[in-house]
Specification:
- The protein has about 190 residues and is an alpha/beta fold.
- The protein has seven helices and six strands; from the N terminus they run E-E-H-E-E-H-E-H-H-E-H-H-H.
- Strands 1-4-3-5-2-6 form a six-stranded mixed β-sheet, sandwiched between helices.
- The longest helix has 22 residues.
């Protein structure tokens, strides 16, 4: 199932909890998440970050949301989102970031899922892979090493499917690589 990727920009209002307008230092990784809200949609994700998180004085946001209708961008890619912070981190984070704040070096993608097992629709996976391919090309990242799970940094069960099924995560990265090859052929007129 392949549809042309369209990105709808719907930027969060500037506030200290979800869009602090702090610059990203350098994009080194794309972090994939699940919303933790079965059958959620991008509009609901926007409302959570724009209204609910602020009212609850809760830090959290992401750059992109992906649902069956497409991709919505909440924060420009040159600004930091609060999507992978934690009180404690994994040894992987320490090895790859050291004392640096992961949010200042990553782009977050939230994938809306079907159920509590974390299954994604084919359309969400397709849009997510197309988006990740575009971002890998934009920031010169290798999908094999440049796409990580929230789990890798914090051990949070996120995205659940990619935590419980390593093959599903590898397939997602393979799909990203395929989209990158297709994009390169298209740009080169082949």
């Amino acid at each position: 199932m392949k549809s042309e990727l369209q990105i709808v920009e719907r930027f969060l209002p500037v506030n200290k909890y979800t869009r602090p307008q702090r610059s990203i230092e350098k994009v080194e990784y794309i972090v994939v998440h699940w919303t933790g809200n079965p059958k959620g949609v991008n509009e609901g994700l926007f409302t959570w970050f724009a209204v609910t998180s602020v009212e609850l004085e809760r830090y959290g946001s992401t750059h992109f949301g992906v649902d069956n209708s497409g991709v919505m961008q909440f924060i420009p890619v040159n600004e930091m989102a609060y999507h992978v912070g934690s009180r404690s981190y994994t040894p992987w984070k320490e090895e790859h970031f050291g004392n640096r704040y992961p949010n200042a070096h990553t782009i977050g993608i939230e994938l809306n899922h079907l159920d509590w097992s974390g299954n994604f629709s084919k359309q969400v996976l397709s849009y997510g892979a197309q988006l990740a391919a575009k971002l890998c090309q934009q920031f010169d990242l290798d999908p094999e090493t440049g796409i990580i799970r929230h789990f890798d940094v914090t051990r949070k069960d996120c995205p659940r499917l990619f935590v419980t099924d390593e093959q599903a995560f590898q397939q997602f990265k393979n799909d990203v690589k395929q989209h990158m090859r297709h994009s390169e052929r298209h740009c080169n007129g082949r």
